């Protein structure tokens, strides 16, 4: 399973990076490949490429503010989560994704 995520928060500082780390840890704990792009106060870091998108099974986007270049993910399965949930509930998010994909 390949997971892509983009994290961003209104202030673009702490929660952006805390969410990225939490999602990365939770995905890796399941043995999944993961790449997280951050859209913080210093701009876009670890930018997701179109090649990454082509290989992705699921895209996780934080929904607290608009994500830049979201059109890259047209036609992909997208899960939207609050940045605070990504920080506090990343393992549960991955469990829900796994259950949903198993039913599909």
Write the layout of secondary structure elements.
Layout: E1 2-7, H1 14-29, E2 33-40, E3 43-45, H2 50-55, E4 58-62, E5 78-81, H3 83-88, H4 90-103
Pfam families: PTS_IIB (PF02302)
Enzyme class: transferase
Domain PTS EIIB type-2: 1-99
Q: Quick gist of this model?
A:
This is protein-N(pi)-phosphohistidine--D-fructose phosphotransferase. With 104 residues, the chain is of the alpha/beta class. It has 4 helices and 5 strands.
Explain what you see.
The structure is a single chain. With 104 residues, the chain is α/β, with parallel strands linked by helices. It has a single domain, classed as Response regulator (Rossmann fold, 3-Layer(aba) Sandwich), CATH 3.40.50.2300. Helix content is 40%, strand content 25%. It is built from four helices and five strands. It has helices at residues 14-29, 50-55, 83-88, 90-103; strands spanning 2-7, 33-40, 43-45, 58-62, 78-81. A five-stranded mixed beta sheet has the order 3-2-1-4-5. Strand 2 (33-40) and strand 3 form a beta hairpin. The longest helix is centred in the N-terminal third of the chain and has 16 residues, at 14-29. The radius of gyration is 12 Å and the shape is globular.
């Amino acid at each position: 399973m390949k997971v892509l995520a983009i994290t961003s928060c209104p202030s673009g500082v702490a929660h952006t990076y805390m969410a990225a780390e939490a999602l990365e840890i939770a995905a890796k704990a399941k043995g999944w490949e993961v790449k997280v792009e951050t859209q913080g106060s210093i701009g876009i870091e670890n930018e997701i490429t179109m090649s990454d998108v082509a290989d992705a099974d699921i895209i996780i986007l934080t929904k607290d503010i608009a994500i830049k270049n979201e059109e890259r993910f047209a036609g992909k399965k997208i899960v939207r989560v609050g940045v605070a949930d990504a920080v506090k509930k990343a393992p549960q998010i991955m469990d829900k994704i796994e259950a949903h994909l198993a039913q599909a």
